[in-house]
Design goal:
The protein has 86 residues and is an alpha+beta fold. Helices cover 30% and strands 12% of the residues. The protein has 4 helices and 3 strands; from the N terminus they run ααβααββ.
């Protein structure tokens, strides 16, 4: 990181990137954003099957299940803030 910060520009070559975990780029976020950054680190994909799976859990979270039922299907529901992402 100190070597990167010495440079005037940052070029990221993302060609042929197959994706991966968010943890792969978290360390770079302070270099890309100059204002405070709020991250939502957990979300659940809302589908009828996922709702059924959450209902069948031994330690079920009825509040989360209710939120999932209120959210539009095929969207992500944040587990941290209640934000719905398309």
């Amino acid at each position: 990181m100190p070597e990167i910060k010495k440079r005037k520009y940052l070029i990221l070559d993302l060609r042929d990137n197959g994706g991966g975990a968010e943890s792969n780029y978290f360390a770079l976020l302070p270099l890309l954003y100059t204002k405070p950054l709020e991250l939502d680190l957990m979300s659940v994909w809302v589908t009828a099957d996922n709702i059924k799976a959450f209902e069948a859990r031994q330690q079920r979270d009825d509040t989360l299940i209710a939120r999932m039922k209120e959210a539009p299907l095929n969207t992500f529901l944040s587990l941290n803030t209640g934000i719905q992402e398309r």
